[in-house]
Amino acid sequence: MTEQGPSVADARFNYLLDASAVLTWLQQEPGAEQVDHVIERSAIGAANWSEVLQKTWQHGRNADEVAALLLGLGLEVQPVTAEIAAEAARIWSLCSDLSLGDRLCLAAGRLHGSTVWTAHRNWAGRSLGILLKVVR
Q1: pTM of the predicted model over 0.90
Q2: Cα(109)–Cα(47) distance, rounded to whole angstroms?
Q3: How is residue 98 annotated by DSSP?
């Protein structure tokens, strides 16, 4: 533990969910059943959490209720640390076509040693040294 909170090595989760994986689960799209098996043992980065809540509001659902549901299941929201932000910047040099939220998710997965779950098929096949699970 550092003075700023848990260190990267203190991670208590095996899976890191990208916003697309959580939205797939919420909307019961193809791949939702895969996410269902791990959501209780997963984390999501704060940037991706914001994206899930924003998309929830955008589609006319109550984001507060969705947040309560997800947190009640045990989904853990992880902060964006300076270390994760720096790693996301390094990933940009390899994959400048990815959004900041995507790069933050991949960076956290790399630093935590967690498998990153996503619905983005275009993440597969990239040589980033990150364990990926594409759910559809």
Answers
A1: no
A2: 13
A3: S
